[in-house]
Design brief:
431 residues; alpha+beta; BirA Bifunctional Protein, domain 2; elongated; RNA-binding
RNA sequence: UCCGGAAUAGCUCAGCGGUAGAGCGGGUGGCUGUUAACCACUAGGCCGGGGGUUCGAAUCCCUCUUCCGGAGCCA
């Protein structure tokens, strides 16, 4: 009994093999029975013929229901109807458990029902495909960083203070130390890491207690923050572009089946693997106004503006040099214009929105202190951060990639809630 | 938090003043090539909760609850 996975059937044609998995669907027509088996690596049609299986085993196999678990032995052969694919000629079927009436049917379902059944929904082909793309994107990011001298430097999730001070944090009691908060970004800690390791990154869940209710927001999401010493603004954007283009190529190379299941336009992804556009914030506003937007200079881009801006652009667009008022305290002033900061947002095509936020950091102690005072930040909580500007300060830059948004773009998934196994949103914490 | 929309069978929906419907899923039977298989039969309902209007309400009005979509904030 040779145990194999569905993905490997092509290598075992004509040879008796055993597979284990679940029933995606089952059909029978008299003495013929078709079981669509899935095992995590793929799907395989298993064909059982009553005279070959014997009446007893055939009748037992007919009692399998959708999502029943089973062990099936047979011989892989070319599919009789679909050229280029394979099917299993069944010798024996053994059920492990007969599934009860499965809640998720073959017809469409509403999002509320599916999210309430997320623990089962993840078995569906599109969810399977998205989660596999998530895996590929995650490791592509790590691969690129590891190959470009970045060292993994895990930042804490429990923190004594806010990173940027702007967004609402989840708060909890921390023994006798008072309040602690769930991290919304590991960035400030990463800035300490570069003074030891040169280039560092972290990758983990971060938390925002904002009452955001859009297809681009979760309260718990995964972010990769990278930070590099001696890297200035323009070089940082180049690093971001190289990283994202590597992810695109890796997803195209490894996830062809998944992209097909999701009906993702692969040519559009291929086209995105080209030099990214760079616009200043001022240029972006001018462009948007020329296209009919009501946006004014000095304002942040709304969701509709992001769509309008990237319309017709095959590649993502960097928006750089933002007004200092609407960006975080730690961003470095533009030496050519003190009203601007050397920050950039990377906007993905097709309305998938901002996938990276990055900037060169303020490395001058006094300018940083002045900015923190202006923001009325509790300075005693940030002495360690200010220390970095006292002991060998260097120019440095960093950026944060939102994993789910990147996966949404790669997979062509409209709503970010499908790009993480168990999405956390303001009105949903189950399952 | 604000602005829209929705709630009817397990699921997706139709019905929009006059006896509660379909498809899928479930059950029973039929079929040797099915692809969300097909065919026949069958079970399954406090029409989201509360209040009103009416001879009569799933249907009209008020209210509450829940969910969805969008905005803002951001990745």
């Amino acid at each position: 009994m040779k145990l194999i996975f569905v993905k490997d059937v092509a290598a075992h044609l004509g040879e008796e093999v055993t597979l284990r998995g679940w029933v995606r669907n089952i059909r029978h027509s008299g003495k013929l029975l078709f079981i669509i088996l899935r095992d995590g690596t793929g799907e395989l049609q298993c064909v059982a013929f009553q005279p070959e299986l014997g009446e007893e085993m055939f009748d037992a196999a007919k009692r399998l229901t959708m999502e029943s678990s089973l062990i099936v032995t047979g011989i892989p052969k070319p599919h009789q109807k679909l050229a280029g694919t394979f099917e299993l000629s069944v010798k024996s079927v053994k059920s492990i458990q007969i599934a009860e009436e499965y809640p998720i049917g073959k017809k469409e379902h509403g999002p509320d029902f599916l999210l309430s059944n997320r623990h089962l929904w993840i078995r569906s082909p599109k969810q399977w495909a998205v989660l596999r793309i998530r895996h590929t994107v995650y490791y592509a990011i790590c691969d690129w960083l590891n190959n470009n001298d970045f060292i993994r430097f895990d930042s804490p999730i429990l923190t004594p203070n806010a990173c940027e001070g702007s967004t609402t944090l989840f708060e909890l009691e921390y023994f006798d130390e008072g309040k602690a908060y769930l991290s919304q970004s590991g960035q400030l800690y990463l800035e300490t890491g570069i003074m030891s390791l040169g280039r560092v990154y972290d990758f983990g869940p971060v938390f925002r207690a904002e009452r955001s209710k859009t297809r681009k927001h979760l309260t718990e999401f995964w972010m990769m923050d990278a930070e590099a010493a001696f890297v200035e603004h323009a070089e940082s954007m180049q690093i971001q572009e190289d990283l994202i283009r590597y992810v695109i190529r890796d997803v195209l190379a490894k996830c062809d089946t998944e992209l097909t299941i999701l009906e993702r336009d692969k040519a559009a992804l291929e086209a995105a693997d080209a030099p990214f556009k760079i616009m200043t914030h001022r240029e972006a506003i001018d462009y948007l106004r020329s296209k009919g937007s009501e946006i004014t200079h000095g304002s942040d881009l709304g969701a509709a503006d992001e769509v309008l801006l990237t319309e017709g652009s095959p590649v993502p667009i960097f928006i750089e040099k933002w007004p200092k008022e609407i960006k975080a305290f730690y961003m470095k002033r533009d030496p050519d214009n003190p009203d601007l900061v050397l920050g950039s947002d990377l906007i993905a095509p097709d309305g998938f929105g901002e996938i990276i936020g990055g900037s060169q950091r303020e490395d001058d102690h006094d300018l940083l202190l002045e900015r923190m005072k202006a923001e009325k930040m509790p300075l005693e909580d940030y002495q360690w951060f200010l220390d970095l500007r006292k002991y060998g300060s260097v120019p440095h830059s960093g950026f944060g990639v939102g994993l789910e948004r990147l996966v949404a773009w790669m997979s062509g998934t409209h709503h970010i809630r499908e790009t993480i196994p168990f999405p956390r949103m303001i009105y949903r914490i189950y399952p």
